[in-house]
Amino acid sequence: xxxxxxxxxxxxxxxxxxxQAPAINVTKAIxxxxxxxAAVYASIDNKGGADKLVAxxxxxxxxxxxxxxxxxxxxxxxxxxxxxxxPANGRLELKSGGAHGMAMGVIAANPxxxxxxxxxxxxxxxxxxxxxxxxxxxxxxxxx
Length: 144
Prior knowledge:
Blueprint: H1 2-17, E1 24-33, E2 37-46, E3 51-58, E4 62-72, E5 75-81, E6 84-86, E7 91-94, E8 100-104, E9 113-120, E10 126-133
Parallel strand pairs: 1-10
Antiparallel strand pairs: 1-2, 2-7, 2-8, 3-4, 3-6, 3-9, 4-5, 4-8, 9-10
């Protein structure tokens, strides 16, 4: 009986080791703003267990839809998704031609650092200041 209890305790301890919490850091956040929409790009590094990006918001109030881009018969297609996988001990790269966020409407370029909040299934929300650029990462023109 004593050996059985020891085996159960060891199994329970080892089972808990596989459930490492995500440890997320968001860097290189950019809002590439066009005349009527904007794309959101960033690097999401995870030094822990797997997680999912479930939402992005501009300034805590403007929702951004998540998208994946793929090639289909030589045609690039974009589709909205409900979540994006953030691999354990890996990186989710939000970039042009891949996974990214999309916001509809005009994004104000002032101030240049716009707060973006990244929401995850398990990890606490992460808010960073994103640099606002023109389409494709070009510098924004400001009227003086």
